[in-house]
Amino acid sequence: MGTGSQGLHKYQFVLEFYLPVDKNSAVYEVFDREIRIKVSKKEADWWPRLLYEQKKLPWLKVDFDRIKHESESEDDKDINKPDLSYEDILRTKYPDVYDKLQKEELGYLNESWRKTYLFCYNLFMFCGFLYAMIIMVIRYMKEQEEFIPKAYGTVGNIFKFMHLIMFLEVLNPLFGYTKGSVMEAFIQVVGRNIWIFCLIDGEERMQIKPVVFYLFCTYASIEVIRYPYYLLRVYDKEVGLLTWLRYTIWIPLYPLGFICEGVIALRDIPFFEETEKFSVLLPNKWNFGFYFPNVIRFYLLFGFFPMLYTQMWHMYGLRCKKLGIKQHKSNVKKEE
């Protein structure tokens, strides 16, 4: 409590120092015109400034009688001490602080802009997939089974556009805007785009197959739950039912999506053998051969079940963590 121009008030402030300090060493003295606070550094390193952010606070004054410069204390240093720059000190002793400073220097978004961007991105993606789902539901209710072969022609462009925008989910963890694995996001996004742009859009005869309609329904059902959950998590908000759906609905939908993708890949093999699309046949001037149907066969034989198992196992771990479910003893041993 203190008395200022507005009378007796409670005053408080928060300072984010350039590097960590020893909070147990803090002492203060109250004078008529000022409050003098003394805090010791956690490590005896030289700081280029007091605060983490490069700003000047009008109420914070420098005591020029006590301030020291690095050049004034060179005689006190050990002459055998290696010549380290501030960057080296930060990188070795304070990697978290170094990473944060490096992001700012490279032009990364501050926290406020980061949250605004993520909120708008998740809101846009939710609206896009919800719009596609509403169109499919309305058209199916009107035309029944006759709409299924027309599904790709009706909402195919929407799904293509939304999945191109989804490449931002690879850049977000790369730039530090979100947590998570860049490689995992890359595999998921690229995988979906290969199915939509190559295996479906690349073969007209596949576009009228019922499995495409079922795949789009699966994609849309997953995303209209996933994106609202992430949208709320940007501001640390959580709805119990939405969280439960986010980490439960994958149990039937992920296997269904994998099955639909597998059926599309399997039925596309004879089509691409006939058209030789996306294949590079020998002989050619580059002396290089690439046969797309064999790539599809290789994935179905050696990649389909491992990818399904990895994805299901990953989501199972997240579900146990988020919903507080105790894992089976055998699963705990596997993780250890």
Overview of the molecule:
This protein is mainly alpha-helical. It has helices at 86-93, 95-105, 111-143, 151-165, 168-174, 182-200, 204-207, 210-233, 240-246, 250-275, 292-323, 329-335, and strands at 2-4, 7-9, 21-30, 35-41. A two-stranded antiparallel ribbon has the order 1-2. Strands 3-4 form a two-stranded antiparallel sheet.
Provide the fold topology:
Layout: E1 2-4, E2 7-9, E3 21-30, E4 35-41, H1 86-93, H2 95-105, H3 111-143, H4 151-165, H5 168-174, H6 182-200, H7 204-207, H8 210-233, H9 240-246, H10 250-275, H11 292-323, H12 329-335
Helix pairs in contact: 1-2, 3-4, 3-8, 4-6, 5-6, 8-9, 8-10, 10-11
Defining key terms:
two-stranded antiparallel ribbon, 336 residues, mainly alpha, 57% helix
Radius of gyration from CA coordinates: 29 Å
Q: What is the string of helix and strand elements? A: EEEEHHHHHHHHHHHH
Q: Output mean pLDDT.
A: 84
Distance between the termini: 53 Å
Strand-residue fraction? 5-15%
How many DSSP helices?
12
Q: Stretches where pLDDT falls below 50 for ≥5 residues?
A: 77-81
Total strands: 4
Strand order, biggest sheet?
A: 1-2
